[in-house]
Amino acid sequence: MPIAVQEQNPIETIKAALTNVSVSEAKGQDTPFDLRSYSHFDATPSIGTEFRAYSPDGKPTLSIRDILGNEQKEKALGRLVSERGVVFFRDAVISPNEQTKLVESLGKLGGKSSTSGLHVHPLTMGGSEFGDEVSMISNKYVFDKTFKRDDFTVIKRKFHANLWHSDITFEPVPSDYATLQIRKLPQVGGDTLWASAYEAYDRLSPVYKSLLEGLTATHVGQGFVDIAKRQGTTLREPRGSPENVGQSLSAVHPVIRTNPVTGWKGLFVNRGFTKRINELTQHESDNLLNFLFEHISANHDLQVRFRWEENSLAIWDNRSTFHSATEDLDDDERVGTRSVSLGERPYLDPKSTSRREALSKARSQ
């Protein structure tokens, strides 16, 4: 199918390509359901798509309730999330239990293994209000009220460039999809930022890409281990996969990863959990990782910032994004429910391509 190209507007060209490029079509499957026929906008050229609660353009609106339980629409949503990194819904009336069902369905329809379920965070306690597979996200405690925080005052705030991460990359089988809804909103603040691993990869020089594609990195959740030790407790296990066990929270993954849904390459290191590039000396590793971490946090063109409203819902692909909360609330409180699906062991397919290469090829057809 030919794709209309508007040479005078490269942003619209990219959006048009994304509208018409289908991973399912590339795999010879049936033509997918087109969620872009509903009222929406792309928040930035590289990452983030939002479905409005109202329609300024005459297109029908799309509610998350229009998608729940509809396999065709859920599959299309998973593909869109993997293409755009993160998708937002306003006025999304959804329960924590429905969040878990949705994110599990996205993973299954995307082809994840039958042994990959929903993640049970190592710092959750049994018998929590919404079940083991829902994490409570709060600025006052770490996943469970047992693990209270005391670092939310302005003097104790962490350096925000250090907060960028992808969920649970310290697990051998980390996350594919995740959902978050903030249930208790602060008066103002508490925004979340996401960054595109696809665009981070595309912004690297060919020499850097070649170097990184031969490397692996060790990811460690040491902060969670230390919290458990201070509280005199052990980490939960198993954690949603028979491979996600143990008390060390350590795993080795490729530095460049292929997303199996899109077939696109992305940078797969993050300041929160990536501690060492294994094939380099410690000094070489530290310097290269510091460059890559700054590459993610300092380039605003990789990022999208989302301001939460009542019933806002975010769904993202952890394989191809990084995210960071904004800790600016002082004594105000922000509480949300997060559900995290587990995907596959990260891998690099040498035949995979970059996002921009794929879009360029689509436009030329």
UniProtKB/TrEMBL annotation:
Keyword set includes Ribonucleoprotein: no
GO-annotated molecular function: 2-oxoglutarate-dependent dioxygenase activity; metal ion binding
Sequence ranges assigned to domain TauD/TfdA-like in this UniProt record: 56-338
InterPro entries the record matches: AtsK-like, TauD-like_sf, TauD/TfdA-like
Disordered: annotated segments: 327-365
GO cellular component: cytoplasm
Keyword entries, A-Z: Dioxygenase, Iron, Metal-binding, Oxidoreductase
Biased composition (Basic and acidic residues): 346-365
Gene3D superfamilies hit by this protein: Clavaminate synthase-like
Alphabetized PANTHER family for the sequence: ALPHA-KETOGLUTARATE-DEPENDENT SULFONATE DIOXYGENASE, TAUD_TFDA-LIKE DOMAIN-CONTAINING PROTEIN
Similarity comment: family membership: Belongs to the TfdA dioxygenase family.
Stated name of the protein: Taurine dioxygenase
